[in-house]
Amino acid sequence: MGYDDSPPDERRASRSDGEDAYERDGRSRTSRREDSHRHARRRERSRNRSRDRRRPRRSGSPDDARRRRSTSRDYDGGRGSEHRRRRSRDYHKHDERGSHRPRARDNDHHDRDRGSKQIVKRSGPLPSQADSFAITQGEEPPKPKEKPNFGNTGALAAASNSVVQSDGSRIVLKYHEPPEARKASPKDQWKLFVFKGDDIVDTVPLNNRSCWLVGRELAVVDLPAEHPSISKQHAVIQFRYIEKRNEYGDKIGKVKPYLIDLESANGTMLNGKKVPDSRYLELREKDMIQFGQSTREYVLMLAPKE
Fold first, then answer.
1. For the whole prediction, is pTM greater than 0.70?
2. pLDDT at residue 116 above 80?
3. N or C: which end of the chain has fewer CB within 10 A?
C-alpha cells in the first residue's frame, strides 16, 4: 500500500482540482440531458406540426376545440389547466346562447315569408280572359249554363208513398215500414185497451197487421184519434223482428212491438214520460200510452197462453 509523501498544501490543491473536475463533469452531464430533452421536444413539435398540415381543416366545432386543448396540455405539461377550463366554459355558454338566437330569428323570418307568400289553391279552372276584363270594367260576367242534374229529387218516393184522395189531392205518408217489419206471432195475442177514465172504450187486436199508424188523418191512419192536440200522423206502433244472442252465442229472434213518435207537435207519453222523436222504444205488457193532450189511455196487454 503506497503512501503520499507530498505536503498537505499540494494534497489540498489536488483535491480541489478533482472536485472541480467532478463538478464540471456533472454539469456537462446535466446540460447534455437538457439538450437531449430539448431536441426531443422540438422533434415532437415538428412531428405534430407536420401531422396538422397533413390533416384536412375542420370546422370550428366544440369537438375540435377539445382536441386542441388536449394537445396543448401535452405541450405545456399540465400548466394553466384552470385557465383553460374557464375559457372552455365561457366558450360553451357563448355557443349555447348563439345557437338559440339565430334559430329563433330564422323561424321568425320563415313565418314572415309564409305569411306574406300564401299559396292560393283553386278548385276549378281559371277564369277566362273575357270574364276577367268584364270584372275590371265593372261589368258582370255571364253566368254559366246550368248542367243537368240526374240525382234523386224525392218526387218518385213521395208519389209511391202517398195516398190519392177522391178530390185528386195527395197525402204523403210520414212513415215507412223498416225491412225488419213482421206481423206478431199467432202465439202472442197482443191487444190494445183504450180507457177513458175507468171505462174501457175500445179494444183493438194488434195481430192483424205489422204497423199501426195513429193520428187524425182518417184517410191514412189505422188507429184514428179525434183529439185536436193529436197530429194528423202522430205516432206508430210497429212490430219488428229483432235477433239477439244468448249466453251461448246462439241467435234468438222474436217479433216485439215498438213505439215511435213522428215528430208530433204535442208529443207522446209512455208510462208518464215523453217519448223522443223518431226513435224506437220497445213496448212491454201493461205499458200505458198517451197521445198529445188527450186523457185517453192506451194500455198494451198480452193474452195468456193456453
1. no
2. no
3. N
